[in-house]
Amino acid sequence: MNAVVNVYRGEQVESSHLGHIAVVDQHGTLLYSYGDPQRLTFARSSMKPLQAIPIVETGTADRYQLEPADLSLCCASHSGEPRHRQRALGMLERAGQLEATLQCGTHVPRHEDSYKELILAGKQLTPVYSNCSGKHAGMIATATHMGEDVATYLLPDHPVQQRIMDVVEDITGYPKEKIQLGTDGCGVPVHRLPLANYAWAFAKLAKPEAISNPVRRDAAKRVVEAMIAHPEMVGGENRYCTDLMTAYKGRIVGKAGAESVYCLGDRERGIGIAVKIEDGGARAINPVVNEVLRQLGIDLDGAWKELHAYTNPPITNMSGTVVGRIETTFQLKPENVSIC
Amino acid sequence: MNAVVNVYRGEQVESSHLGHIAVVDQHGTLLYSYGDPQRLTFARSSMKPLQAIPIVETGTADRYQLEPADLSLCCASHSGEPRHRQRALGMLERAGQLEATLQCGTHVPRHEDSYKELILAGKQLTPVYSNCSGKHAGMIATATHMGEDVATYLLPDHPVQQRIMDVVEDITGYPKEKIQLGTDGCGVPVHRLPLANYAWAFAKLAKPEAISNPVRRDAAKRVVEAMIAHPEMVGGENRYCTDLMTAYKGRIVGKAGAESVYCLGDRERGIGIAVKIEDGGARAINPVVNEVLRQLGIDLDGAWKELHAYTNPPITNMSGTVVGRIETTFQLKPENVSIC
């Protein structure tokens, strides 16, 4: 049983989560694992940095003067704060497109004040409030720049999605014909690969010199540096992605995915880490990532300590009293095998 | 691996949930199991029908003219609809108490329109919006009727909680000294017992003649009949508890608990069922309960079919398109052992 997290009520375990972990270096060597490092996994929004690479490669970013903060928003599962919505709309505007071209659907944003304002103004949720609106704005801008059909940018055989498939194959090192597809929560194709290949991809994002194609290498570098420079665009206030990258001051690039996935890269050591909680339970993922960083000894005296609120989060009742806690239970297993 | 549910994205498994199931008859015989039927579990709000029994036993229900709908609300994790809030406030008023005596804390109610109304009126959430406000109103009314301190009704050694402990010991058949305590989301003590004992308790609620103490037997009967007569008070619109009891027209009494617990009793056969999803993932519980009912052959041509929306719920993306589904994966194992 590959338990990674116990959830306590008082001093007793109430619930527990299983999980899978892969730690891979830039050369494709699996260094550590837990559970099944080859688990076939939809990495969901953790793939947004890869999905953003064609925006640079195609020249779209230059054509529409995308700033680093814009490019960071293209990699975001943002909270729908005003700064996020304004940038997404701004990118569309520079590409000559309207909000209505966004096909991401919508949902109540994490940023409560933005939602309350909307209700008070008697307005309805629109697609720009979706946490994926930056990614979709980037896809639409790319299709526009390339003179492709904008109405069908979601479809797996659209050039926008085909270019993303090429990037995923190249950077994860996993052959296209073996990649299974599903549909993501925002309507775009989502790819299913072994967890270790996502870890390898993030090792390469952390050390783009490991990417052989020079145009792709530069594009990957530009995307990662945008996220590092503007972590507030990747998530928002009190969001783990934002706080993780802020605390590590450029050392770590990381991105969460739905169904409890996290992928991150250590730019100092050139290693990538990918985690999947088996049941998709969101509360388990941040404590597990923090514990992996601790076991790998990544800046324990500095940045890691700043993230303590995510390490053993308390369980509170509806009056705010602490009635339990979340604790990790795993020990990484050393490995030394190539996944290439 | 005791997997009970697979979550599919397209045709691939994205996440999965483990679980535990106990099916026990009114005499305390374990009939079927899956996973660990003796798993020590906090049943959380699934215990509300037991927590409501002292309201009747003490004469509180008669003293303050609690109607069956009020008593049903005392067993509820309600959605905070106007009908729920009005009844909770009405019970407090008849006991001569104010809303401020409720110590359940508060949270955004499931009933979206009620929350929007509150925001539009510029008001704040108050404790009556908590899904537990009916249970707390019942506890406060009981303390008032008994002349006990109202300010401390949450504490484990308060007579209100001690009477509940007596009921839990008696009806679950599990000795008080072995029961571990935690604090529930609403601040009251919550009990940790083997899953099979919860199933036995619900078998007794289904057939109260199995309860030896005649006062308790009548009180249990009155509580169960209140829930059966007013399932709309136990949950609300589009809530599984409400829809389950409505569909089965008096045959089933059931109550959900936080961290993915469900307890129910079949009043025709006199059996109780208790389910716990190991990771506490809410989406897994209703499909599992429906599948247990199917495997036990409980009214498959009638009520069961009406609940189809809960059996294999689709996973939709933010535009409402179906992109996956939830499917159960378990087969109950026949047993025939006494848990007494």
Written overview of the protein:
Chains A, B: This is Asparaginase. Chains A, B: It comes from Brevibacillus invocatus. Two copies of one chain form a homodimer. Chain A is of the alpha+beta class and about 350 residues long. Chain A has helices at about 50-55, 60-65, 70-75, 80-95, 110-120, 135-145, 160-170, 195-205, 215-230, 230-235, 240-245, 285-295, 305; strands at about 5-10, 10-25, 30-35, 40, 180-185, 190-195, 250-255, 260-265, 270-275, 315, 320-330, 335-340. Chain A is built from 13 helices and twelve strands. In chain A, the strands form two sheets. In chain A, strands 1, 2, 3, 7, 8, 9, 10, 11 and 12 form a nine-stranded antiparallel beta sheet that branches. In chain A, helix 3 (about 70-75) crosses helix 6. Chains A and B meet through strand 2, strand 4, helix 5 and strand 5 of A and strand 2, strand 4, helix 5 and strand 5 of B.
